[in-house]
Each structure stands twice: as C-alpha cells, then as structure tokens.
Amino acid sequence: MLIILLSLLPCLFWLAFFYVQDWHDREPISLVFVTFLLGIFATIPALIFNTVGIVFVAFFLGQNSFLSNFVQFFGIVGPVEESAKLLAVLVFAYKQPEFDEPIDGVIYAAAAALGFAAAENVLYVSQFQNLEILKIRGPISNAGHALFSAFWGLALSQAKAASNVRGKRTNIIIYGLLLAAITHGLFDFILVMIGDKSLILSFITILLLMGGMFWYVESNVLEFIKKSPKRNESAKLKAVLRCPNCGQVGRAGLICRKCRKKLPQIDLGEMRSCAKCSAINEPGSVSCNYCHQSLLAIVQSAPTSVYPHFIKITELGTEEILHVLDKPSIAIGKTLDNEFVLDDETVENRHALVFWDERGYHIVQDLNSINGVFINGKRVNEGYLQNGYEVRFGQVRLIYRALNIMQI
After folding, report:
1. Which of 136, 185, 257, 366 gives 73 a disulfide partner, CB atoms 3.0 to 4.6 angstroms apart?
2. Digits of tens for pLDDT over the chain (408 positions)?
3. pTM for the complete prediction?
4. Contacts of residue 313, Cβ cutoff 8 Å, sequence gap at least 6
C-alpha cells in the first residue's frame, strides 16, 4: 500500500499543476478522476503490445543495438503507449459535453497520461524494490508522460473545432498522435543510448527536450486561456442601417455622420452592398435595386458534398467547406460541445440551431443570441435556407449550399 501511495504522489502533483491551468471553467473532478483511472487501465494493453513487439524486434534485430533500440522506441513503445493513453480519453472524456474548451484537451490528456505513469511507477518500484526510482521518475518521466500526451490533447481540441469534411478531424488527431509518439520515443532513446555513455550529456539533452515541450504546451495553454469561450460574454455588434431622417447608412445606436442625429437602437438587419455597382440595398434584398445584380453568393461550382453544407469564400475567391450538415440537428456556437464550432468573439457559446423541418428543408433558428442570426442581411428568429443564401452568425458570414433545392 505504501508503494502505491508513494507512486501516486508525483503523478497527482503534476495532475494538479495541469488542472489549475483551466482558469475559467474547471473540469468536474469526477470526469478527471475517471480519465485518470482509464489511464491506469491503459497500461494493460500497452504492456501486452510492448512485450510482443520488443520480443519480435529482439528476435530479428538483436538486443541493445542502435537499430533495435531505434525500432523499439520509435516504432513500438512510443506509438503503443501514446495510442493507449489516447484511447483512454476517446472512449469517455472526449464524448462528454464538459469537453467544451480548447484547454480541456490538455487537461484530459494529462489525466490519462499521469494515470498511466502512476501504474508504471508501481510496476517499476515493485520490480526493483527501490523507492529511489521515484526521485527520477517523479520530476522527469511522469512530467514527460503528460507533455508527450499534450500533443494529441491539443489535437483533440483542434479536431472538435475543425470542419467535419473528408476525415479532416481524424487527420488532425493522427498528426497529434504521431508528434506524441515521436517525442516519447526520442525521450526513451536518449535515456538508453546516451545515458549509458554519459549521464551529464543525457541529462542536458533530456532537459532541453522537456524544456522545448513545456514551452510549446504552455504557450498553447496561455493562448487558450486568453481566448477561452468561457472568459466573458460575446462582443456586442451594432447593425448597419439607414438613418430614418436623411437616409445615410450608419451603425445602430451611433450618431449619423450626415445629419448628426442618433440612429435607432433597434437591430432590424443590415444594409446590403452590391458587389457590382456598390449600391446600398435594404435588408433582405436578394437582388440589387439599381443594377439588378444578384446579391446572393450563388456561383457555378462543382458539388463538393452530397449533403447540404456551409461554406466560406476564401481570399482567392474559392469555396471552402466549413461544415457538412449530415445530422438532423446541428448546434452552432463558440464552445467545443457544439457540432459546428465558430471561434469568434461575436458568436455565443450556444448561438443557433440548424435542423430539418417536416418539408425537408433546413431551418436556422436563433437561440436568443445577442448578435443574432441574419439571412441575406435580415435578422431572423427562424428562417428557411435555400442554395446560395448568405447566413451570418454574429459577424461570421457563411454561404448555405444545397443541391436540388426547390424554391419555397
């Protein structure tokens, strides 16, 4: 029992260190604890695969050679252990609605990694019957486990916020896992190959590696804290409208630049500028009143998805799919528990909902957001979508794309 308690202490210390990094909305202790336990259980499949893999490598490449150690650490130990820890988060914490901030990926990755490290502590101390091992593993190996896993922890948060098209989210997670496996393998490789020859050189190299990883992880964590969707309310936008006194276009609630009278506070919509003649049109207009140019963003382009989807127009004038509407109901907002994440200060944590109605059309519904939902420049509480319609959430402008949509 004493061995178990002493083995847990350094891991609990590092877990507390990472846990308090979440300033705005700390994760439930129960979820962190379950993830920690799953990290402990993850050592079982990792031990099996590691043992089989190391025996296989030793049989074909021999033991303790440069090549066998390279294959062992970079091809087996690193990938196997990081995959086991990643699975511990994917099967539980990643699916929870509490996983809603970018920093949460780091917190849950650290919990799983330190549970894994705690089990390793017990194994090593029991095997060698020497508590002195914890003096090395506590500040170095245990912290290393958390830092390795932070790479795929960051990737989990990025994947939740990424487009759901063409396996993009999966690719992000795989890339993060590869980075974790490489740094993990490099750490072990340095300890074995350099540590046997020079403890001082090994220590300096490990210190530089861990310092670089810590700087990378902590810089991302600080950025997440600064931009956390839980830090404050959404920034209030002012609608573009026409002055009722002189007709000058201005911002709601501000002083008119022409007649110097205050514009009304009522947010009815936004005046729409024609891309061809630059004329200003009323909210909700779909064609210019002056040159009759369409104000919608319909272009002739090859279909890129069989499902309706939201796209944005890039600076090069091409379309980029941001989200495929492949579910009956899609929540849109700033936090990671939404199906469609829009990272913008004018978008609220739970901003809008897009769903199928009984007629087979998509409907967008405003969820009482401050900055509202606009269809073709007109603010709506709820509205049907048609191919080419511009939809704005806060200040994020998107285009709705759908194939074979009939006019309502």
Report:
1. 185
2. 656 666 678 888 889 999 998 888 889 999 999 999 999 999 999 999 999 999 999 888 888 888 999 999 999 999 999 999 999 999 999 999 999 999 999 999 999 999 999 998 888 777 665 555 556 665 688 889 999 999 999 999 999 999 998 889 999 999 999 999 999 999 999 888 876 667 788 888 988 999 999 999 999 999 888 888 887 666 777 777 778 888 787 877 788 888 888 887 766 677 777 878 888 887 777 788 888 888 876 655 545 567 889 998 877 777 888 999 989 999 999 999 999 999 988 899 999 999 998 888 899 999 999 889 999 888 899 999 988 899 999 889 999 988 654 433
3. 0.84
4. 297, 319, 320, 399
Amino acid symbol at 369: S
